[in-house]
Amino acid sequence: MLWRKKKKRVLGIGLDGMPHSLFLRLAEDGHIPNLKRLADANHLKRMNSVYPTVSSVAWSSFSSGTNPGGHGIYGFVDRTPGTYDIFIPTASNKVSDCVWDHLGRAHKRSVVINIPVTYPPKDINGVLIAGFLCTNIDKVTTTSRLIPKLKEMGYVIDVDAYKAQKEKSALMDELFNAVRRRGEAARYLMETEDWDFFFCHFMETDRLYHFFWDEYASSDPTFGPKFYEFHRALDEEVGKLVEMAGDGVELIILSDHGFCRIKKEVQLNKWLQDEGYMTLRPDFDPKKQLNNIDPQDTRAFSLIPGRIFLNLEGREPGGTVAPGDEAKALLQEIAARAKELKDPDTGEPIIDKVFYRDEIYSGPAVDRAADLIVHPYDGYDIKGTIKADSLTRREHLEGMHTYDDALLLTTQEMDLGPRNDISGIMGHILAMLGAS
Ligand SMILES: [Zn+2]
Q1: How far is the CA of 161 from the centre of ligand 1 (A)?
Q2: Is the pLDDT of residue 331 over 80?
Q3: Ligand 1 centroid to 113 CA: how many Å?
Q4: CA angle 392, 395, 398 (to 5 degrees)
Q5: From CA 236, how far away is CA 303, in angstroms rounded?
Q6: Is the model's pLDDT at 162 over the cut of 90?
Q7: Strand 250-254 vs strand 406-410: parallel, antiparallel, or unpaired?
Q8: Ligand 1 centre and the CA of 206: distance in Å?
Q9: How many angstroms separate the alpha carbon of residue 314 from the centre of ligand 1?
Q10: 207-223 tens-digit pLDDT
């Protein structure tokens, strides 16, 4: 088909959470030969993620080309405005268009597979198979003709990561299976659908790093080799997709953040309670989550990871902090004290950066952002448990996200703007396809 060769096309591949630094090591040691060949022949660089460094937020910034203030996704959980209730944001909570919406208006067809926060799936010009947060394959796409085919292929939306707590080898098997099935489904769609923009996302790297980083770091005799084998399987799937897309396709292979080993989990609400900023009601009920706070005796509370909200008069239902000078002074005080927070065992500082929301966010959803965003040093994974026994602990998670070690491998060199972050990619995709 000659017309296909002539038309400009873009193939994107998401490797969730794969660190640029790990990519270099794996390439050097021969574990990812296809990706290494692509990196050698094209442009590979280190890229920044977003604050807070969460997949839902980073992929929303990728797909909508804005900072979180522009798309409205600030984390895996968020609070319902005007209440202390929390909810899980989905694609319905995004306030901006995605790259495939812009392309659709320019009569370009997209095939989008497994990108986080695409559930519930929308009708697009093309095919959208939702990712993470979709738990039912019957609801994974509005292109219903594809559902029997996906089922027949044994397609996996996301692995059951909580298996890791019970049965690590079963989780490892599932990760391999999910990658193979995703690759197979992607090749089927690449062959049977017409497309200008094709994106296949692999979530499984993120799961691998969360649950197997210790085994990788310690060269565990069982899971150490499996960690490399997994990357070889992934590399094969990437290689097949790139080959099938053919010469002349523009490539964008990326991760949305990096990863490192967790030293400690840090309970920020415990810290706020210890510092006298937050008080819980005596009749604590875990199901009530943030509604356990005693509003009259609370000036600030936190949502995972590192999002601190003031209990503001006129905004929170039991607000105690007056907007204006009082709020500003309190934010400055909390920011300064957060930067002094130390690991109680080692004395190491925990918080690397503290941002006021207007410093890092802009756009229509900025008023839904936290008032302060604290970002830790690598190794300190900030959590949001309402009632915790201790400030720090180590649980079953082994790896955590990092901000400045995402990767970007492209056929065309890409300037991502002053932040060098993931939100700078969308404009290039639209430009490459003549849709900007
Ligand atoms: Zn991620």
Answers
A1: 14
A2: yes
A3: 15
A4: 110
A5: 39
A6: no
A7: antiparallel
A8: 6
A9: 35
A10: 999 999 999 999 999 99
